[in-house]
């Protein structure tokens, strides 16, 4: 039994993006429901397009971890450019949504070097129809972000999901 939210940087220690702190409540995360997140990160160089993200998602089945497939952009997927995805979600020229706007956290590329901090903020997790294989359980997710082959960030999360 994994239980409990945890995180770690998984890069070689030289990555320009380092997560300094991250907390998530409640634990386990409930869907639908509210999620309270606080985070701080440092970025030592500007992050420009294309930002490639490789996500490896695993679910605990008994004593084993099984890698989840990439289905409808969920699971273990490779995203060729996060910048383009952000531009689709929030068209360039639109202001960033709260609470990002209040805390000066950008929602478009390029991301300037600096320190970014999100004090405890509430987000609504809508009642999305997750595939049955992505509901209740314990998960590990490793996300590596790179630009033209250079790793910029690597974060590993462990968490539990609970459907309401």
Describe this structure in words.
This is SAP3 protein. InterPro entries: GM2-AP (IPR028996), GM2-AP_sf (IPR036846), ML_dom (IPR003172). Keywords: Signal. GO terms for molecular function: enzyme activator activity; lipid transporter activity. By secondary structure, the chain is mainly β. The chain has a single domain, classed as Ganglioside M2 Activator Protein, Chain: A. It has one helix and twelve strands.
Give the overall pLDDT as a whole number. Answer: 92
Looking at CATH, the homologous superfamily is: Ganglioside GM2 activator
Distance between the termini: 20 Å
- The computed structural class is mainly beta
User: In CATH terms, what is the fold-level topology?
Assistant: Ganglioside M2 Activator Protein, Chain: A
What is the number of E strands? 12
**Tally of individual helices:** 1
What is this entry, summarized?
The chain has 164 residues and is mostly beta strands. The protein has a single domain, classed as Distorted Sandwich (Ganglioside M2 Activator Protein, Chain: A). The chain is built from one helix and twelve strands; from the N terminus they run βββββββββαβββ.
């Amino acid at each position: 039994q994994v239980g409990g939210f945890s995180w770690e940087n998984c890069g070689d220690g030289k990555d320009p993006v380092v997560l300094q702190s991250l907390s998530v409540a409640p634990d386990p995360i409930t869907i639908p429901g509210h999620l309270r997140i606080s985070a701080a990160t440092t970025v030592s160089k500007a992050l420009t397009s294309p930002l490639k993200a490789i996500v490896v998602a695993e679910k605990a089945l008994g004593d084993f971890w099984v890698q989840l497939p990439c289905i409808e952009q969920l699971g273990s997927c490779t995203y060729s450019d996060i910048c383009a995805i952000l531009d689709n979600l929030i068209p360039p020229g639109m202001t960033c949504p709260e609470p990002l706007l209040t805390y000066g956290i950008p929602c478009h590329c390029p991301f300037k070097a600096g320190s970014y901090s999100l004090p405890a903020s509430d987000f609504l997790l809508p009642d999305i129809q997750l595939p049955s294989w992505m509901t209740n359980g314990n998960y590990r997710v490793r996300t590596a972000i790179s630009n033209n082959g250079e790793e910029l960030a690597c974060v590993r999360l462990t968490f539990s999901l609970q459907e309401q």
